[in-house]
Amino acid sequence: MAALTHARITPRRSPARGHADHGWLDSYHTFSFASYHDPSFMSFGSLRVLNEDRVAAGTGFPTHSHRDAEIFSYILNGELTHRDSMVQKGKEGKEGEQFYRMKRGDVQFTTGGKGIAHSEQNESPAVVHFLQIWATPWARSLTPRYHTRSFSEAAKRAGFVPILSPLAAGPGASAAEEVAAVPRIEDTIPIHADLVMGAGLVGVGKRFEWVVGGGEAAVSKKKGRRVYVHLAMTKGGKARVRLDGREGAVLGEGDGAFVEGVAVGDGLGVESVGEEEAEVVVLDSD
Q1: pLDDT tens, position by position, 123-165
Q2: Dist CA 197 CA 163 (whole Å)
Q3: What's the chain's average pLDDT?
Q4: What angle do CA 231, 188, 267 make, to 5 degrees?
Q5: Residue 205: left if φ>0, alpha if ψ -120 to 50, beta else—which one?
Q6: 59 with 122: CB under 8 angstroms?
Q7: pLDDT over 90 (residue 70)
Q8: Residue 55: its H or E element
Q9: What is the DSSP secondary structure assignment for residue 33, as one 8-state letter?
Q10: Rounded to whole angstroms, how far apart are CA atoms 114 and 30?
């Protein structure tokens, strides 16, 4: 039985997504991206792009620029090397913000701001599978910067783990507050948007609850929030989840759902009803 009777939940089925197979890159687009354009799927709150990508070994995205976008990669399987354009291959030195070999559990975040250039290459012998997500920032021409953080598998099996939360200083942050990069939720990556991201590994028969807004103090918009739930394609089609106890909101791998009309503090139930553990990502936006 549905608990959030005031909420509207609309599934976005995997086969209906945009799809492009370039050989080296196999990508599914929840929202309009590159050659895929659908006016019905342009954005959802601050959320602008959600691509589920697989990149072949020895290939990747060469140096390219970003501007006025918050961009984050959530690694599902394999390895993806992030390298700023100023870092020469073979002379990277210690891994850090400008150079990092991302693995499962890692999230790499980029504020494009007034302009930044980097590459993302699969320098491993196996395919890398990851989510590429973009959000529209609350201001233009921000100072570009990177953040990388790892998140525990064990924690994700206990409940939803917050991954991103708004920069605590907000849209009026000073230069010093930008450098300090303090997020609203402790141990998350700060984002320049009224958006919270969470992730969980929901075991078969288990039920997790996502608290909308990530807590009273985490977000600015309290009512009418827009939550997108995505079930990653990690278990060969054997994972399934049911949202808010609704039979019409059962998601298979690659499916997502738009949850509208919810407010901070509402609890969205996510129950694993498949044959395998479900990897669920939640994007909770204004």
Answers
A1: 999 999 999 999 999 999 999 998 999 999 999 999 999 999 9
A2: 5
A3: 94
A4: 50
A5: left
A6: yes
A7: yes
A8: strand 47-55
A9: B
A10: 26
Across 136-157, b (16+ Cβ under 10 Å) vs e yields: bbbeeebebbbbbeebeeeebe
pTM as predicted: 0.95
Residue 274 identity = G
Picking from 206, 225, 205, 202, the residue whose alpha carbon sits closest to that of residue 214 is: 225
Ramachandran bin of 127, using left for φ above 0, alpha for ψ from -120 to 50, beta for the remaining angles:
beta
Q: DSSP characters for 148-166?
A: EEE--HHHHHHS-EEEEEE
| Bridge partners for 106 per DSSP | 150
Residue whose C-alpha is closest to residue 135's, from 229, 221, 50, 262: 50
Q: Please answer whether residues 235 and 274 qualify as being in contact, where contact means their C-beta atoms are separated by less than 8 angstroms.
A: yes
Q: Are strands 128-135 and 47-55 parallel, antiparallel or unpaired?
A: antiparallel
Indicate the SS3 state at residue 120. Answer: strand
Residue 119 DSSP code: E
**Backbone region of residue 265 per phi and psi (left: phi > 0; alpha: psi in -120 to 50; beta: other values):** left
CB 83 within 8 A of CB 89: yes
CA distances from 134 to 6, 90, 176, 186 (A): 28, 29, 25, 22
Q: What is the pLDDT of residue 64?
A: 87
Residue by residue, DSSP assigns 186-243 as TTSEEESSSEEEEEEEE-TT-EEEEEGGGSTTT-S--SSEEEEEEE-S-STT--EEEE
Task: Scan for tokens 């007034």, then name that residue.
Answer: 114
266 phi, psi to nearest 5 deg = -65, 145
